[in-house]
Every structure is written in structure tokens, then in C-alpha cells.
Amino acid sequence: MENRTELQPYSVLMSVYSGENPEFFAQSLESLYIQTYPADEIVVVCDGELNEQLDVVLEQYSEKFGGKMKIHRLESHGGTAKCANTGLAICKNEYIMKMDSDDICLENRAEKQMIYLAQHPEVSILGSYIQEFDSDTGNDIAVRRPPTENEAIRKFAKRRAPFNNQTLVYKKSLAQSIGGYCEELERCEDYDFMVRMLIGGAIAANIPEVLVRYRVTAGNLNRRRNWRNTKSFIAVRKKIRKMGFSGFMDFLIPCASQIILFIVPGFVTGFIYKKLLRK
């Protein structure tokens, strides 16, 4: 493998809660297990008590990873940001690779990203493209292509998340210096984290290749158009504007678009999301 001896070790950070699909969770862990450049640490934070099926998957993969997996269980449901901060403190390596418990890494995801970071040590937060696919049929839907260069990422971030959260690799030291994830936010904590990393001095990049397959279900679209998510969407953009990162129009335009998506019927939301926003 190219430059393998020069690559830095990395930790994988993921969380899981009782509502996850055990089959999807197993597929996610399997995609980590078969990486061409494997992690030397897999940190899994359990967001409260899990069901028996998920515990079985954890036990199976704990054995497969041969002692590399660290499992931390929160006593009660703490939310995504709480899990991320808990795992952030546990991870031993400087480079932390985020992973969702229902998505699938391509087998060379880690190798591609760690080679890039070895060649660009100034980069402290790195993502890639994702391939969205229909969870029921397995059919590909669209590729989400965020900007790839630092300045373009910063400009894009004023209105929309400039990374696919499922693809992130970032430096632990910088993440801790900005206070990690904001546990006061109910939703959209990943976007807030990305912006604060940029404010904190992160040099950013996205690899222009699909490295993760992102599972799309009916629940994904429903979450995007419910009022709880809409309120969080607006609250985070208001917070980002107060930090001085974005302007009034950067706040107004995406918030107005989100409100429209909330108001229109669900099938229209799905059409806009799949056919227009991904072009």
C-alpha cells in the first residue's frame, strides 16, 4: 500500500442507541472491519440501554476486532452531542474518524483519507463525497458533493453544512480546544461543530470521491421536514450569525428554504431533496 508506513494511526468514533436497526449496525461495523488500512481503536458510545439484538452485534464485533473495540455505555439517553463528547475524550489518537451506525464505508475509505492527511498535514478536518442510496431497494439516489478546497468550504459553510458528517476525520486537539460538540443543541450539532472548527482555525478539505454510502429512509425525509428539526435548523444558523461567521442573508435564505420544506407536502419535499438540492 502506498506510503503505508508513514500513515498516522486513527480512532473510529461512533454512537448507537436502542432504536437502531441491528442489521444496519452490523453492516456498518463490518465495513470498518474490512478496511484496507484498519483502525487501531474503535470507540462505540451506547446512548443509554440497548436492546438485546444490538448487544449481540456489539459482542460479535468486539470479538472480531480482537480487543480494539472500546464500548462505553451512558446510564441514560444523552443525545448525539453528549455521545460525541464522551467518545472524543476516550479516543487515544490525534486523528478521529466519525462513523454513523447505519452507514457503510467503502473498504478504502480510511486508506484514502489517511494518505491525504499524511500528504497534507496542515489539514485538520477532512471529508469526502457520499453516495446516498435507498435503504429498501439498495438503489443509488444521488451523490452529495460538497466543495473540496478550504476557501470554498468556508464560503459554503455560511449557509449549509460544508462536509458530509459521516465522512469526517478531524484532529482531536483542535476539536477539544473549541469545546467539542455543543450539548445544548437539540439537533444540527454537527453543522455547529463544523463551523466552530473553521472559526477555530481549521484548514479544511474534502476528497472529491465517494468514500461512504449513506442510507436514506422515509424517516430521513420526515426528520428534515418536522417542526422540531426546523426550529433547530433556525436556532443553529442564528447562533452561527451571532458568532460573526455569517451575514443576515446567509441566515435568511436557508431558513426561509427550510420553512418552505416544512410547509409543503411530504412528496414535494422528497422530490426537491432528491431531484433539485443534489444537483
Task: Walk me through the structure.
Helix 7 (189-199) packs parallel to helix 9 and helix 9 (227-242) packs antiparallel against helix 10. The protein is an alpha/beta fold and 279 residues long. Strands 1, 2, 3, 4, 5, 6, 7, 8 and 9 form a 9-stranded mixed β-sheet that branches. It is built from 11 helices and 9 strands. It is globular. It has 2 domains: 8-216, Spore Coat Polysaccharide Biosynthesis Protein SpsA, Chain A; 218-279.
Query: From the helix content, strand content and strand pairing, which structural class follows?
Result: alpha/beta
- The averaged pLDDT comes out at 87
Q: How would a crystallographer describe the biggest sheet?
A: 9 strands, mixed
Task: Please give the share of residues in helix.
Answer: 40-55%
Report the C-alpha radius of gyration, rounded.
18 Å
Query: What does the overall shape look like?
Result: globular
- Identify the CATH architecture of the largest domain: Alpha-Beta Complex
